[in-house]
Design goal:
alpha/beta, 12 helices, 8 strands, globular
Length: 308
């Protein structure tokens, strides 16, 4: 059976791109969730970014149901760009090798193809996720249309959930390979800034795995990238239309978010970054509350006690 079950000669409508580096623990689950989709007009492209474990052995068991590209380790952005270059579909879906999809994910997103350029879903968080909500957008309040003003404040789009028009991703130059992290947020901001219209399926059709060893946990490096991405977005033609107040809030949110992640392992850094956020935007009640928690945690009062 062909992976997409479409007629010979037809092109797949969706190209599923899966970048992977040493993903032997989870990639089978991710791929199984793709091939279990109730929507079938897709192809699968696995880009192996120099894995040294058994990833390729597992991928090989899927035979000609997918295409594989192997490269020396060059990073997440390069792997994603290679997948987009190889894509034959009008739409590109990104799925990290440690996440997985509900069987109806692509079918339900396909209902939004007309009139949208980026389609995302809510996500169910699992794994090392004690500090986050179980489900994103539990209130079903998903930003749509021109989402730049919302997106500049936070990356609310689970990247393993997105469907994007392939031609638009290529037109804006794909993922920024100079960034070491958060390449997804940067890409989405540039798409939105270029006029892409977003649509949302607010069901949690994407299962997002939080892992302590993930790239995003390199807090100092990620904070630098986060600030660079926001400053560049605000300096774009679309970003210059953002109000001064929102610009200050956006930069403050960079430091608040960075502090939130750092607080897991480095409360001194978290306190400094929370203080920096408040110096930029002192009107955030949650910012003051989080600064207090991080400060008290330095004196032996556990975060769990503070949250109870």
């Amino acid at each position: 059976m062909k992976p997409a079950e479409y007629r010979d000669g037809d092109a797949p409508l969706v190209s599923v791109v899966m970048p992977v580096f040493n993903g032997e623990r989870f990639i089978g689950e991710a791929l199984d969730s793709v091939f279990a989709q109730t929507y079938h007009r897709f192809e699968v492209i696995v880009v192996d970014d120099g894995s040294t474990d058994g990833t390729l052995d597992i991928v090989a068991t899927y035979g000609d149901r997918l295409r594989v590209f192997r490269q020396q380790n060059q990073g997440n952005a390069t792997a994603r760009n290679r997948g987009v270059e190889m894509a034959r579909g009008e739409w590109t879906a990104q799925l990290d090798a440690d996440d997985w999809w509900d069987a109806t994910k692509l079918e339900k997103q396909a209902r939004y193809l007309n009139g949208a350029d980026v389609i995302y879903t809510a996500a169910l968080n699992f794994g090392d996720s004690s500090r986050v909500e179980d489900i994103t957008f539990a209130n079903a309040d998903c930003p749509e249309g021109d989402v730049f003003d919302e997106l500049i404040m936070a990356n609310f789009v689970p990247h393993s959930s997105v469907l994007m028009r392939t031609c638009l991703v290529r037109q804006i130059g794909g993922y920024d390979e100079t960034l070491r992290s958060i390449v997804d947020w940067d890409l989405l901001l540039r798409l939105s800034g270029a006029g892409a219209r977003f649509a949302a399926c607010c069901e949690p059709l994407t299962h997002y795995r939080w892992r302590a060893a993930s790239v995003s946990r390199n807090h100092r490096r990620t904070s630098e990238d986060r600030l660079s991405v926001v400053e560049r977005a605000l300096d774009s033609p679309r970003g210059r239309l953002v109000s001064t107040t929102r610009k200050r809030k956006a930069v403050a949110e960079v430091w608040r978010t960075s502090a939130w992640f750092a607080a897991e392992q480095d409360n001194w850094t978290a306190v400094r970054w929370y203080a920096r956020a408040i110096a930029i935007w002192p009107f955030s009640v949650s910012g003051w509350r989080e600064l207090l928690r991080a400060t008290l945690h330095l004196f032996g009062i556990s975060r769990e006690r503070l949250l109870n």
